[in-house]
Amino acid sequence: MPVTETDIALADPATLAARLIEHMVEHEVVFETRGVSTVADLGRGTGTLTVLARALNVRVEAEDAGDLEMIRAVFAQHIVEFAEEPLEIRWTGLGESPDAFANFREIRLISAEDLTPHLRRLRFSGPDLARFASDEDLHVRLYFPPAGLAEPEWPRPGPDGRTLWPADERKPTPRYYTIRRIDLAAGTLDIDFVLHADAGPGSAFAETAQPGARLGMVGPLGRTVRSASWHLLAGCETALPAIARILEGMAPDARGEVFLEVAGPEEEIPLAKPAGVALRWLHRDGALAGSQERLLDAITAASWPEGAEPFIWIGCEFQIAKALRRHFEKERGLPKERQLIVGYWSVDDD
């Protein structure tokens, strides 16, 4: 397993470590104490913080170089942001900074297909896609170049571990998406895009891009459901691709319930699912996404069979996700390891 580490000289390493841990816990990162060290579980690797007399030791271990670079970048960026002094960060174990992240791929648009009036599937081709064919990690980070840029430029790892970006006028915009399907033999992958009236970079690309258009992609990222005797899956249309993929991967005897909020019946799509998983569509009927409590009410009213060991997976608007985390933790007493509730977007961004 690849390893890289650094000792960062600091006037008060304990305070910085505490701020970093607090921030990452707010973003659902799980830590545990091992002796004098604190270890973050980041799915595809770990980050270990050890407070020394006048320095902070950071050790990153991961499954491969791509994951190692990604986790290292997270720690380096946050440490620089939280430090109130100039820093020198030198990592051992990875050698010189390469021209691209090991988990980066440039992908090209092949075709587009409308699944509903507001859900469009784009098919891309790309090299060496095997690492993205993961049933455990559903998402990727896509980089959308500025419109009209003839030759896109991509981020790359810097010598201190942070991400180096192109100049502002050439800087791509990152967004997170779900790989819906991947065909390793053909070298293609499908990603579903929700089309918005106030189009962001992803929606705008999906509406206007022509075959041959290029995007950057890194990953895989994110998590799927954990093993459980009963599952609750829920979300708005932004989570629909992930929920569809999760359902397809479930065992035939799986049990649970699914709530999906969409604009109306025209936005429903056929979903393959086990017979023991109930599916309920919730329609906004003209209301704005995130403006109602219909999804929140449906989820909080749901109950699982007595004696079941549930797992909750939800992707929705940020404030709704926050309320649901509070509900399951405080009112239901559900341990954090039995839930993954993520804010995919925020009404405040509109």
From TrEMBL:
UniProt domain FAD-binding FR-type: residue ranges: 102-227
Coiled coil: none
Pfam families attached to this UniProt entry: DUF2218, FAD_binding_9, SIP
Assigned protein family: Belongs to the SIP oxidoreductase family.
GO molecular function, one term: oxidoreductase activity
Provenance organism: Methylobacterium brachythecii
Top-rank taxon: Bacteria
PANTHER family in alphabetical order: FERRIC REDUCTASE, NADPH-DEPENDENT, NADPH-DEPENDENT FERRIC-CHELATE REDUCTASE
PROSITE patterns: FAD_FR (PS51384)
Protein name: NADPH-dependent ferric siderophore reductase
